[in-house]
Amino acid sequence: MLHIEDIHVYRGHTYVLKGVSLRIAQGEIVALIGANGAGKTTLLRTISGLLHPRTGAMHYMLGADQPSHDLTRAVPEHLVQLGISHCPEGRGIFSQLSVKENLLVGAYLRRDKEAIQADYHHICELFPILAERSKQAAGSLSGGEQEMLAVGRALMSRPKLLLLDEPSLGLSPIVIEKLFETLIDINAQGVTILLVEQNAVMALDLAHRAYVLETGRITLTGTGQELANNDAVRQAYLGGV
């Protein structure tokens, strides 16, 4: 579904991604783990068109019988139309808008009004608290509720590929567990997920496959279980357990 080949990305004068290559198959949950500053957020921002590689290539395909799309210089609006949605670190909600208004912003490129309403009700089923607080200002929600809102807003564009950047950051263990259960449901409904996550234990337990990113380079890849059992990964990211 997504093929990234040897991309090199700078943020200003800082050389961040140094020849990153990875693949994501349709229907997978793929985790990307690594220390702070490794380049994980930069990689997601590059996939979603907010940054562009200096060299390398990125291609996106929705099926074997579909044409490949070159994402290397694509703009974010085009990527959303292709079915890629990015839920950023820090959530990025519109605090003065209501919960419902925030969700509808996620469908801003769509014109299918009946389907938009159906998707809105579906998001409220996934996250019932959002239905209860639909008229409430988004800035008044708790951290966990804001994360649910950010994920729901990303889903309102009907993505085929969902990019999630640190969804568990700052949340309580109970809320994290509920959020990850919902991600399994979202994936079961046909959404492919690329998950950047500091909580490596839960990320590797959730993921079909995973990559380790260290100082801008992919250093390890394997199934979630293989990396969870890797001694170096356990020592660096799983607390040595």
Termini gap: 34 Å
Reported for the largest beta sheet, the result is: 6 strands, mixed
Number of distinct beta strands: 10
Can you tell me the CATH class of the largest domain?
Alpha Beta
CATH homolog superfamily of the largest domain = P-loop containing nucleotide triphosphate hydrolases
The shape, in one word, is globular
How do the helices and strands follow one another from N- to C-terminus?
EEEHEEHEHHHHEHEHEEHH
- Helix amount: 25-40%
**How large is the count of helical segments?**
10
- Roughly how many Å is the radius of gyration? 17 Å
> By helix and strand content, what is the structural category?
alpha/beta
Mean pLDDT: 90
Kindly report the CATH topology of the largest domain: Rossmann fold
Return residue spans where pLDDT drops below 50 for at least 5 consecutive residues: none
Protein name: Amino acid ABC transporter, ATP-binding protein
GO biological process, one term: L-amino acid transport
GO molecular function: ATP binding; ATP hydrolysis activity; branched-chain amino acid transmembrane transporter activity
Domain ABC transporter: 2-240
Structure description:
The radius of gyration is 17 Å and the shape is globular. Helix 3 (99-105) runs parallel beside helix 6. A hairpin with a 2-residue loop joins strand 9 and strand 10. It folds into 2 domains: 2-83 and 159-238, Rossmann fold, CATH 3.40.50.300; 92-157, no CATH class. The longest helix has 16 residues, at 173-188. The chain is an alpha/beta fold and 241 residues long. It has a 6-stranded mixed sheet, sandwiched between helices. Strands 2-1-4-5 form a 4-stranded antiparallel sheet, covered by helices on one side. 37% of the residues lie in helices and 25% in strands. The chain has 10 helices and 10 strands.
